[in-house]
């Protein structure tokens, strides 16, 4: 430390082994440390507008943190943001990515509660996680246990949190209650299945038919799904005639006829929550569902919840989910890790017809 102070007015060049580049220190400032990242300068087709670049990491502010990213998922919301279709607009040029996990490399002079080596995730969206080195505001970071897997940590703040809130905020679910959902194979749907299993709640999961349907049913059942039906099978299912209780909560991420089908099986005075529209068709609610079954319909958007939720509720949710993950009751969704140089493969997967992408692609920044 004394030697560094003595050289505070002189550039000191040292090897930065993890990133295989040169770090130049001038006092407490970082210079000539290059970040490998993706960026887009206009809205449009992600395969056309997203480009790779390398640029210098900016100087670290007093309340900022330098993070070496480990992993960041490619989510549908990321794609919609790049396309300019997401409700939240960004200033261009912009680095994509809402979620991610990394290690703290350096903290600003006024950051007292983080230190080098802390494992952190992004607690606020639109921070630009598709890069190997990034400077983030301290307020955007949350520490997670070192034992938490990189994929689980990188994908913690969107789908697990969405599932947790929808299962907690709309209906007071009790053990052996029933939740019905379409898109049961989606990343959020897989989290719903596992959280319900941990809480003793039964799930009826509707998926679209496909050639490998047997393998998909087996996979979801092993996660903890009580029942898995294709949309065609669901139409003739008899399970609600005595085998299980009618659902008090329905979760709709498809819309159109698929969402309307859920309402047919739901209990009187139950609730359906819509959090996605993969079919790109409007949500259809028969008049009879309102008048004769008194069903309530709501929408949910995790980004909006985060804007208004108290810090205590966020912390409690995070701790509950991490506990489930550490005890292996909540696993990461089916995924594939790809290096930054292969980012186009991840974009192509995310642009596949919704519901048939196969797995979540995650950018892997580790050497």
Automatic annotation (TrEMBL):
It holds the Pfam family ADH_zinc_N. It catalyses: a 2,3-saturated acyl-[ACP] + NADP(+) = a (2E)-enoyl-[ACP] + NADPH + H(+). It is an enzyme of class 1 (oxidoreductase). Keywords: Fatty acid biosynthesis, Fatty acid metabolism, Lipid biosynthesis, Lipid metabolism, Mitochondrion, NADP, Oxidoreductase, Transit peptide. InterPro entries: ADH-like_C, ADH-like_N, ER, GroES-like_sf, Mito_Enoyl-ACP_Reductase, NAD(P)-bd_dom_sf. One of its GO terms (cellular component) is mitochondrion. Residues 45-351 form the Enoyl reductase (ER) domain. GO terms for molecular function: enoyl-[acyl-carrier-protein] reductase (NADPH) activity. It is found in: Mitochondrion. Its EC number is 1.3.1.104. The keyword Transit peptide applies. SMART domains: PKS_ER. One of its GO terms (biological process) is fatty acid biosynthetic process. Belongs to the zinc-containing alcohol dehydrogenase family. Quinone oxidoreductase subfamily. PANTHER family: ENOYL-[ACYL-CARRIER-PROTEIN] REDUCTASE, MITOCHONDRIAL. This is Enoyl-[acyl-carrier-protein] reductase, mitochondrial. The lineage of its organism: Eukaryota, Metazoa, Ecdysozoa, Arthropoda, Hexapoda.
């Amino acid at each position: 430390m004394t030697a560094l102070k003595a050289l505070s007015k002189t550039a000191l060049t040292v090897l930065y082994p993890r990133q295989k580049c040169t770090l130049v220190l001038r006092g407490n400032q970082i210079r000539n440390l290059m970040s490998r990242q993706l960026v887009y300068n206009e809205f449009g087709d992600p395969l056309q507008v997203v480009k790779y670049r390398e640029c210098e990491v900016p100087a670290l502010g007093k309340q900022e943190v330098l993070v070496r990213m480990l992993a960041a998922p490619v989510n549908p919301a990321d794609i919609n943001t790049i396309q300019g279709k997401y409700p939240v607009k960004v200033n261009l040029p912009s680095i994509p990515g809402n979620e991610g996990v990394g290690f703290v490399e350096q903290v600003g002079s006024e950051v007292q509660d983080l230190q080098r080596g802390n494992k952190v995730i992004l607690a606020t969206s639109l921070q630009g996680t598709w890069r190997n080195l990034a400077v983030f505001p301290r307020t955007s970071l949350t520490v997670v246990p070192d034992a938490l897997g990189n994929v689980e940590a990188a994908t913690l703040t969107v789908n697990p949190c969405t599932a947790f809130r929808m299962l907690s905020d709309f209906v007071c679910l009790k053990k052996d209650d029933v939740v019905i959902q379409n898109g049961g194979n989606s990343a959020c749907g897989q989290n719903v299945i596992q959280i319900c299993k941990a809480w003793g709640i039964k799930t009826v999961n509707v998926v679209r038919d496909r050639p490998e349907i047997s393998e998909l049913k087996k996979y979801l059942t092993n996660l903890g799904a009580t029942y898995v039906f294709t949309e065609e099978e669901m139409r003739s299912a008899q399970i609600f005639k005595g085998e299980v209780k009618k659902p008090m909560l329905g979760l709709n991420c498809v819309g159109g006829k698929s969402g309307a089908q859920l309402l047919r099986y739901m209990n009187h005075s139950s609730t359906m929550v819509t959090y996605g529209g993969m079919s790109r068709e409007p949500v259809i609610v028969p008049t009879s569902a309102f008048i004769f079954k008194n069903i309530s319909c709501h929408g949910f958007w995790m980004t909006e919840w985060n804007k208004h939720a108290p810090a205590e509720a966020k912390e409690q949710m995070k701790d509950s989910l991490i506990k489930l993950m550490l005890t292996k009751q909540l696993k990461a969704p089916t995924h594939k890790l790809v290096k930054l140089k292969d980012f186009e493969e991840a974009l192509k997967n995310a642009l596949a017809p919704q519901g048939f992408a196969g797995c979540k692609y995650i950018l892997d920044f580790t050497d």
